[in-house]
Structure formats: structure tokens, C-alpha cells
Amino acid sequence: MSVQAPSSVVLIRPRHFTPNPATAADNAFQTVDRTRSPAEVAVAAYEEVTAAANGLAAAGVTVHLFDDDDSTRCDSVFPNNWFSTHAGGRVAVYPMCSPSRRTERRADVIEMLKTRYRVQDVVDYSGLELDGAYLEGTGAMVLDHLSRVAFVARSHRANPIVLERFCTQFGYEAMAFDASDEAGVPIYHTNVMMGLASRFALVGLDLIRDLRRRAEVARAIAGPGREIIELTTAQVADFAGNAIELQTPTGRVLAMSARAAGILDAGQRATIERSCRILPLDVPTIELAGGSVRCMLAGIHLTPRPTVIPVPEHPALAPEHTALVASR
């Protein structure tokens, strides 16, 4: 088992997905598909999330799948931006930059966490939106649960005051840095350029232009004994950094998009496969919105509540337990 790799995730399946025009200004990863109608895009996204949920469950990951029928929430497929969970029974709820995304926060998701897992405390930072201060969860932060470091590419989606408050309350050390693509556009979310696993990290180090700071970030990432897999700018653009390590009963898997997995070279794949299996999920429509598999999955780092199993008259008839896909 690894404290870095959760065994359960929350996944949102939207009925009205579309790339969000309100977030396009600072999300250089976002694109528009002019070959399909909005209705066709929405149907394809719904089907991609369904297939991803089934693929994760088949691999042994517990998936809590929530449907979203609200036509005003086109980005709700990315729940990792509005909440995160932490060992010790803690949940954080975050302030979102775009007003169009603030209604994605759902009480039923938090209630499910309280029902199925041991939740001691929910810390809600969303009121800071009124002050124009934002911190978009594990999109803006890539959390090292081993070394307790929060890696953050500076942007207006990661307010330094909110970041410091989160780190103080949740026991992380902030490591902020400037990162930009080849055109000089700042990276909008850290998790598109960096993915941390237990034994390795996928990182677009070249996007950190300051060489001294780049070396400091690399040392911090490698500190727990990780091997750094350096990504090219082209691989970052194809979401190779937007991956998440997950724990299953048969070992760890690295969930990433089929597009991202396809751009890895043989050496990179070999390094990954020394400690976990690559689990490619085909989400090309979702990626139009500028995020990929890591953005879609909110990992659950909480302790499950014990399951009460009814005792039948004949013990041989006791139910079996399998990975659960909970639909709400």
C-alpha cells in the first residue's frame, strides 16, 4: 500500500459537457471541436466517463460515480478542483476562479464521503471567492503525500495567501515556482505538467525556466526516492503529466489518457512499469476542455467505515464483496 496512491475515487458523469468559454482565456490546453455539434460532444463525453468508470472498476479501483444533469455546469467532470481528501479524516473545499464553476460543489458528494468514510473535519475555503482569492484544489496543487510538499505553478488560480493557509492547516510545505509553455503562457494548473507516484514522477521540468528553481523542484520531487521521468513540452501538451497513481488489490496502476500513454517512449514506460501498471483511459472529448484523467479523478485518502454485513441463516450464502460503482 502507498499513502500516495488512493484506492477509491469520485468521478462525475456530465450530461451537458462542453469546453468552457469562461476558462479558455488562461487555459492553453483547451480546444474546440468544430466537426461535431454541442449535443454530439456532450453524448461522447458522457460515454467516455462511463467507459472510464468501468475501466477503473474492472482494474479494482472503487469508483463513486455521480451524474450531473445541470446544463450550467459544463466543467463538472473535473471534481478534483473543488475538493480534496486527506488522511486523518479531513476534507478541503476550495474557492474557484471562474464563477461558472462554483456551483460544481455538491453537498451530496460530501455527504457520501461522510457516510462511507471516516470524516472528522471539512475545511471550507470557498468563502474566499468574495475576496478574489482562489485555490483550485489538486489542479492548482500537486500534493506529495510522502514528503508533505505542495508543488504549485504560480497563477491567479493559486492565491499565495490561500495556499499558505491550506498548507498550515493541512501540514504541507508550499513549493511555488513559475512555469510557462513555449509561447510564454503560464501553466494554468500544476497537474498538467506534473504527476507524482510512489516511486516515480512525470514532470515537465523544462517548463520551469529558472534553472536554479528547476533544480530545487527536482530535488524535492526526488527526495522520497522517486525517479524523475522528464517530459518534453509536446508530451505535456498531450497530457502525459496529467496522471494519477491508484492502489488496487493486485498492485498499483497509473491512470492516464490513451493519448498520454501513446506518447510515452519505451524508456519512460519501462520506468513506470517497474512499480505499477499503466491503465489507459480513452477520453479525447473530455480533453477538449483542457484537462485529462487526473483532473477527472478526485482521489479519496480517507479510511473506509466498516461495512456491516448481514448474517444469513446459512453462512454459505454470505454475499461476496467486489469493487463498487455507486451511481447517484
Describe the secondary structure blueprint for this structure.
Elements: E1 8-14, H1 38-59, E2 62-68, E3 83-86, E4 90-93, H2 107-116, E5 121-124, H3 137-140, E6 141-144, E7 149-153, H4 160-170, E8 173-177, E9 194-196, E10 200-203, H5 211-222, E11 227-230, H6 233-237, E12 244-248, E13 251-257, H7 258-263, H8 266-273, E14 277-281, H9 293-296, E15 298-300, E16 325-327
Parallel strand pairs: 1-2, 2-16, 4-5, 7-8, 10-11, 13-14
Antiparallel strand pairs: 1-15, 3-4, 6-7, 9-10, 12-13
Which characteristics define this entry?
328 residues; alpha/beta; L-arginine/glycine Amidinotransferase, Chain A; four-stranded mixed beta sheet; three-stranded mixed beta sheet; 9 helices; 25% helix; 23% strand; globular; Amdntrnsf_FN0238; Amidinotransferase; transferase activity; transferase
